[in-house]
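Title: [Solved] tRNA wybutosine-synthesizing protein 3 homolog 3D structure

Original question kept below for reference.
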Amino acid sequence: MAAFRRWKEQRLARADESRKGSVDEAIAGLVQLLNGQERFCTTSSCAGRLLLAQAPARGFNGYEVQKKNCSWLMVMHQLCAKEDVMTALQKATGDTVFKFEPFILHVQCQELQDAQLLHSVAIDSGFRNSGITIGRRGKIMMAVRSTHCLEVPISHMGKLMVTEEYIDFLVQIANRKMEENMKRIDRFYNCLQLALKTELSMSNSPRETIQKTHSEYTHRRKRKPDKEPGVCTSSENKEESEIEDDPEANLNIFS
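Solution (posted by the thread starter after getting help):
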């Protein structure tokens, strides 16, 4: 416990190495809530974004964007308009891809049961691609992810390959995905607050009662109540999980 606390202090004292250099405003409260708990430490996050990425001179490999090798002609963490994309395309000289990337959050957890709690909250909130990994040295990571992405080639060697009408269509789809993304973030924040509050209220209860309560919350997603935006309820999202590989992990506990 003491070792985790020291590591967390060192981690949070580091400079933000992301391109933006700070936590996205839409999830600042969520990140603060997690880091305010001794057992959690966020390591990376993105609230979700719309971007126009340009590949290096050799082009995209099967039109999959390699973040380290591409340049961003446009990046927005809120809704965008067709004009935003068209303006960014004026700077294109190579192959470009228009993308929507949903919310993602990585949290290192002190104990496996802490990661399990976050995993339950994430699934209940609609982030069906979330998972827990345990590294070779015992590091426990919880990744909050979903699968409602969008990635479409737009231009080739600087030449626009689609019509403006189609770009407008893509922007509308991406904006709807961003709106749903923000609703899920709100649900995640509310579900997390509820879960932490429930644990706190049970902290003085007998151990058997606490375990029963945790078990009930963990399996609550099997129920099917009506879902409302920003309200902590079980998700009925049927997207298939596509868990990403974690080079630091050798064991995937939940997916």
